[in-house]
Amino acid sequence: MDTNTQNVYIAGDADSHNLKQLFKDFLTQKGVKFVDLGLFENDATTFDTIKNELNEKVAQEQNPVGVLIFGNKNKA
Prior knowledge:
Structural class: alpha/beta
Number of helices: 2
Strand content: 15-25%
Radius of gyration: 13 Å
């Protein structure tokens, strides 16, 4: 992945905060720049809004990467 010319957009549902943070930490360690679109803790924005924003960002650019993360309410 050419991290100098490629934008990475991340979005997740309300249950994805821990997994999304692990992924963001991984990208940071690898030197990959990213934009976290949400959902954030205590965020009143709906998941559909965030999903649509991610889709729009990916559709507008030449070589974007979009990552949509879903959490699990049934944690072990």
